[in-house]
Amino acid sequence: MTDEELYRRYLDGDESGLPELMERYGDALTLYIDGYLADIHEAEDLMIEVFSYLLTKQPRIRDGGLRAYLYKAARHMALRHKSKRRPAFSLEELSEEPEAETLIEEVVKSRERSRILHLCMGRLHADYREALYLTCFEGLSYEEAAEVMKKNVKQITNMVYRGKQSLRELLKKEGITHAE
User: Fold this and answer.
1) How far apart are alpha carbons 78 and 94 in whole angstroms?
2) ∠ Cα 90 148 6 (to 5°)
3) Inter-residue contact 47 to 30 (CB < 8 Å)
4) Residue 142 near residue 68, CB atoms below 8 Å
5) Of 116, 131, 130, whose CA–CA distance to 177 is shortest?
6) Are 98 and 104 in contact (CB under 8 A)?
7) pLDDT tens for each residue of 120-133
8) How confident is the model at residue 53 (pLDDT cuts 50, 70, 90)?
9) In the record, which residues are listed under signal peptide (predicted)?
10) Do the Cβ atoms of 35 and 133 come closer than 8 Å?
11) With b meaning 16 or more CB within 10 Å and e meaning fewer, what string describes 27-66?
């Protein structure tokens, strides 16, 4: 069932569409918002506000446009609530244990690569970072990303291209030479 069908189902009084939509987009929207706020708990609260806004305002959404609408609303709310606080470390990371069959060296390498990627993404121009995140990590089309960022498709294409170039250079400086 499409996103729009679930949404229409909810608008018609069948509340079973809401949990499905939240399951499809809740985690991804939370991570997207967390990219702005660097506070996962606040990001979770804003994700719920995105769905609350959608359900209380009940905007008309064109076919194929619900996903972009959710990200656009999430971006708007995150920018309004943006916080500069950044935690020095996460207590959650201290409690994580690798699976028994996973070699500790691989876990360390993987975490280090993720840390370097996160660090390098943070050094990118904000527009490049957001365009890359939406298209590469969240799988939005260039058209959807353009709608979310209030840009045109050509601008998104350029931002993704330049963002990838910049990211490759930053990763090379950090010792990662095989970045795609």
Assistant:
1) 28
2) 90
3) yes
4) no
5) 116
6) yes
7) 888 888 899 889 88
8) confident
9) none
10) yes
11) ebbbebbbbbbebeebbbebbeebbebbeeeeeebeeebb
- Pair of tokens at residue 87: 């935690």
CA angle 100-115-50, nearest 5°? 100
The first and second tokens of residue 147, run together, are 């709608």
Kindly report the pTM of this predicted structure.
Answer: 0.58
Look at residue 94 and tell me whether its pLDDT is greater than 50: no
How far apart CA 90 and CA 48 sit, in angstroms, is 23
Neighbours of 114 (CB within 10 A): 10
Helix (H, G, I), strand (E, B) or coil at 161: helix
Q: Are 67 and 54 in contact (CB under 8 A)?
A: no
Measured CA to CA, the distance from residue 90 to residue 94 in angstroms comes to: 7
Q: Which amino acid is present at 59? A: P
| R_g of the chain, CA atoms, integer Å | 18
Give SS3 for 124.
coil
Which residue type does 160 have?
V
Structure tokens given for 158: 């350029």
User: Which pair of tokens denotes residue 89?
Assistant: 């470390």
